[in-house]
Amino acid sequence: MAIAQTQNITTCRSNGGGSEVVLLDFWPSMFGMRVRIALAEKGIEYEYKEQDLANKSPLLLEMNPIHKKIPVLIHNGKPINESCIIVQYIDETWNDKSPLMPSDPYVRAQARFWADYVDKKVYETSKKIWTLKGEEQEKAKKEFIEILKVMEGQIGEKPYFMGESFGYADIALVTFYSWFYTFETLGNFSIEKECPKLIAWAKRCMQRESVSKTLPDSKKIYDFFIEMKTKLDL
Amino acid sequence: MEKVKLFATWSSPFVKRIVWALKLKNVEYEIIYEDLANKSPELLKYNPIHKKVPVLVHNEIAICESLVILEYIDETWNDVCPLLPKDPLDKAKERFWAKFGDEQVLPSFFGYVMKQGKDQEESKETTLAHLKRVEQLLSEKKFLSGESFGFLDLAFGWLAENSRPLEVITGLKLLDEDSFPNLCTWKDKFLEIPAIKESWPDQETLIAKYQEIRESKGK
């Protein structure tokens, strides 16, 4: 499987003893993208290590023995796993600039709730769109749109999920935007038609360099998906 | 005067961890027991997305999802009994294991207890493997959160609370001392924490209530 890098990654290993940040990732992963956005928001230099998920490296297996998944952030030799947990770790560790979490505990709880909602609902439902056919796929599409509408409703008239500032909850969802073209093509529907305000929010996020430089081109994601589908005979 | 309400059921492990956290933080609150077959308009108003318990309502604003609620409680009532550590790496580890507990350990444990025959045998292997991982977490620590109890102990508290009652009801040996010496020691210590010990339902009440359910289902 050809794994193409589609964006410039800062690869600068700092000298030993200082802060060394390594990211184990897989370029089309919307979970990995969350971490890349967070690192970019904070201006953190790191070494990006592309992983072959069909042939997992000893490093990945050592750093994430429980789930054996990416992304894994390795900071000074210590691993942090699970994308939302990594984003919070990044925010708490590099806390001198660009806060990703709201400062008020209640708003922070809401941000956590919505990121959790994305994890519980968006990925699993979107998977059904590309694995199911016919009536079952139609049902999955409806469910997916309903979920997006709920989030569109939450954003409302605000620029971002929690208000004026881009942050954690936006990061949790916006990475799926790079996959929307793939879902739309497979499911033969238009997300923009169903959820125009959500697309407007996504485009607003894309105006941030951290997002636009992280999210791969939608067509490249689609080509990757088709290649993966062919290989796995989905 | 702060107004705190908790929408709950007596049996939910996700609710219980909130009850414990509020007690540890000396927060006064009103508990509203829900009939999940007949959810109140209030619950649906405060948790329209998932329609589940627990929901914490603090001065009329709602927080949902038990691990989110725990962090909210810790950050809001931050003058007593800190639950999460200050260090970001330690915090990340506790969050990781709490998530693992909720997504993997809890469902497989309760699944194992409730299943029969071949399904039960299969669940048993998965459950034992998960429990071994939790056992390893305790290899150099008194509590899951370290030297003193905290967030991760509350997150796994359902295991301490339910293992003996379920052993009594089902006859299954869930946490045997030979395979899980650390977990057994932790379980006893956890149940001795005053806030935990004094929370309702206690162990004997739990056994009686599970027995009641079992009998009503004709098992």
The arrangement of helices and strands of chain A along the chain is EHEHEEHHHHHHHHH
Sheet-strand content of chain A, in percent, reads 5-15%
Q: Give the oligomeric state.
A: heterodimer
Overall, the morphology of chain B is globular
> Roughly what percent helix of chain A?
55-70%
DSSP, total strands of chain A: 4
* Average pLDDT over all residues of chain A: 91
Our Rg estimate of chain B from Cα atoms comes to: 17 Å
Mean pLDDT of chain B: 94
Number of strands of chain B: 4
Low-confidence stretches of chain B: none
Shape of chain A: globular
Largest sheet of chain A: 4 strands, mixed
Alpha-beta classification of chain B: alpha+beta
Topology overview:
The complex is a heterodimer of chains A (234) and B (219).
Chain A (H helix, E strand, L loop, with lengths): L20 E5 L4 H12 L5 E4 L7 H6 L8 E4 L2 E4 L1 H11 L11 H27 L2 H22 L12 H7 L2 H11 L3 H4 L1 H11 L2 H4 L5 H15 L2
Parallel strand pairs in A: 1-2
Antiparallel strand pairs in A: 1-3, 3-4
Chain B lengths: L3 E5 L4 H12 L5 E4 L7 H6 L8 E4 L2 E4 L1 H11 L11 H27 L2 H21 L13 H20 L10 H12 L1 H4 L5 H14 L3
Parallel strand pairs in B: 1-2
Antiparallel strand pairs in B: 1-3, 3-4
